[in-house]
Structure formats: C-alpha cells, structure tokens
Write a structure and sequence with these properties.
- There is one protein chain.
- This protein has 193 residues and is α+β, with helices and mostly antiparallel strands.
- The protein has 2 domains: 53 residues; 115 residues, 2-Layer Sandwich (Translation Initiation Factor IF3).
- Helix content is 39%, strand content 31%.
- The strands form 3 sheets. Strands 3-5-8-4 form a 4-stranded mixed beta sheet. It has a two-stranded antiparallel sheet with strand order 1-2. It has a two-stranded antiparallel ribbon with strand order 6-7.
- The relative contact order is 0.16.
C-alpha cells in the first residue's frame, strides 16, 4: 500500500510518515516513480499506531532522552585496533560489528552543459574524513545496541565503484563515482581492573 494512501486514510502527514518509516525497521520499497510502498503483509494499523506514538510529544521526548544516553555512552566508548586495553579486563565478547558510510562524487567532467569540472581526488579526500567518522559512529552505535562499552580489533575497509550503465539508445552512461568505507571490530564489555 502506498504511503500517500495510508496517510490519507489515517489522517496523518505523508511527509512525516515517509521520514519515520525510513528509520522504523518496517519493510517498504521505493517504486520507479519514487513513491513509497509499504509491504502489505505487515499490520498497517500497528505501523500507523507506532508512528503516532513515536511522533507524539511523549514519544519525541523519549526518543530525545534515548539519543542523549546513546550519545553520552558512545562518546566515552573505548576503541582500539588492538585486542585489549591496559588497566581493563574484557568480561564479555558480543561479536563482530561494522559501520558503513558512502559518498558519491561527480566525475571529472560534467559534459558540455555541466558547467564545470570536478577534481575527483580533492573531493574524495575532503569526503574521506567525513565518511570514516560516520562509519565509526555507526560502529559505536552497534556496540551500544549490544550493551557493550568498547570495541576491539577495529580496522577500515574501503570500496571504490565506477558505475556505468547502458542508455536506452545503446550509449554509455557514466554515473558518479562511489566511495565507501566500513569500520569493523568486535564489541566487548570491559571493566576497570
């Protein structure tokens, strides 16, 4: 069922519902026309009730408190590329986790009507710090979700894509470069000796 129909039937904001749905964990797909279609095997009444609860003043306040708690916990979370911390004992291993981020960078030439040239290397280097930081933030949030207070064995993997597709008239369409980074590690609980 399309979210615009759900919004109309339940008297809710379509834009707010679409935004919330993207963060909610419910299954949906984006159609070719850009509309969002909710998987109808799910209980639509339940989804709408959860949306209303989450976007109520009480729900928003709870989300803010939860976000602040997570931010405080992740800010003090210890991270290492090694496998131990001096002065701490690992009391629980919760498993492998990762965090990802990606950026698209326009190709060097924007074509006859593009109006400029992109310095791909400079754009990538300017973006690299940002996407690596976002991947690390997601890694910490994954550890926090598992109830952990540290991550060991952290490393980064990098991905470069040069996407190309065929146009309807048989030509070649060069899409923007895609650069991704993944921060990997093992979530653990540590206690001070």
């Amino acid at each position: 069922m399309k979210t615009k129909d759900i919004a109309k039937n339940y008297g809710i904001s379509n834009t707010a519902f679409d935004d919330w749905l993207g963060r909610s964990g419910y299954r949906y797909r984006v159609t070719v026309t850009g509309q969002i279609d909710v998987d109808e095997s799910q209980n639509i009444d339940e989804i709408v009730n959860n949306f209303k609860r989450a976007t109520s003043p009480e729900g928003m306040a709870e989300q803010k408190r939860t976000a602040q708690q997570m931010q405080q916990a992740t800010a003090s979370m210890l991270i290492t590329s090694g496998f131990s911390f001096d002065g701490y004992t690992i009391t629980k291993y919760s498993g492998y986790i990762s965090g990802d981020d990606v950026v698209q960078i326009d190709r060097g030439s924007q074509g006859m009507f593009g109006g400029g040239v992109t310095n791909v290397g400079e754009s990538l280097m300017n973006s690299l710090v940002h996407i690596r930081r976002n991947a690390m933030t997601e890694l910490k949030e994954s550890a926090y979700a598992l109830g952990c207070n540290a991550v060991i064995g952290v490393d980064f993997d990098y991905l470069t894509l040069d996407p190309v597709t065929v146009t309807s008239n048989g030509g070649t369409l060069y899409l923007p470069y895609v650069f991704g980074v993944t921060a990997n590690g093992n979530a653990v609980i540590i206690e001070k000796n």
